[in-house]
Amino acid sequence: MYSLLLVLLLKLPVTLTNSVEKAAYLTVFHIIFVFFVWTYWKSIFTPPQQPDKKFHMSYADKERYENEERPEVQRQILAEMARKLPVYTRTGNGAIRFCDRCQLIKPDRCHHCSVCAMCVLKMDHHCPWVNNCIGFSNYKFFLLFLAYSLLYCTFIAATVFKYFIKYWTAEPTNGRSRFHVLFLLFVAIMFLVSLLFLFGYHCWLVSQNRSTLEAFSAPVFSSGPDKNGFSVGFVKNLQQVFGEEKRLWLFPVMSSQGDGHCFPIRTQSEAQNPLLANEEQWEEDGTEEGGQHNYQQGTSLSIEMET
Fold first, then answer.
1. Which has the least CB within 10 A, 60, 151, 253, 269?
2. Is residue 135 within 8 Å of residue 49, measured between CB atoms?
3. Nearest 5 degrees, angle CA 33-CA 39-CA 43?
4. Is 110 a catalytic residue?
5. Which residue in the list 99, 116, 127, 203 is annotated as catalytic?
């Protein structure tokens, strides 16, 4: 992508003769490029968020769990620990989701990344493009990175295409210009097509409120697997990732709802929701967790009213 920038900047003075057109191209290009680099930087250097310490085993529970050899008793120990935690999802056989390597009860939508060697909240996938694990803390940044990359390539392809037609229908003034324009257009279209499929797929995931992992393996609840278990409607699904402040949607700043540990569930009402029924058991003092409880309660009530 950086080579595209260099080639375009070198070719514009030769190809374009209108000063206004030159200025317009360079201005728009650099605005898109700044957002492209900004979102790329945030995707790379935003660390994946790990579960809170209350999901980790205490020393006493860890010792009791490791000394117990009977699987059914181990499952009972985990179930006792999970009663005070906001967890809905289960393993395929109905057990509490537990990470042996991190020694913690996994929050909903949390998975262990073997590359990062840690559990990641709302893990989507480990991306080699950014050499980072994409999850709750940086999923919005990754989506914006794809969007601005797509816009970046589209702008290059659109502005170069007419010169590509011109150079193949008339003799170019410079013998090397034809190759430069052809190369620039080819690379831009190649990235554009690839990004179009990837970005479209993630847009579909956001609209369904699913992660990449959940698209391949549906989350399991107490009532069984449900691929749409976290989907609460198109608008609310968007707000889960981008937040309620629409003016922040296009900027790579953190605006996602919640804290990554618990999420609204489509199939549960207020009376059935363990988060609300047992809130006094797991809620701790502090403005952050209190705010999260208010957010969770308000979301659950709105879902109940809609249904």
1. 60
2. yes
3. 145
4. no
5. 127
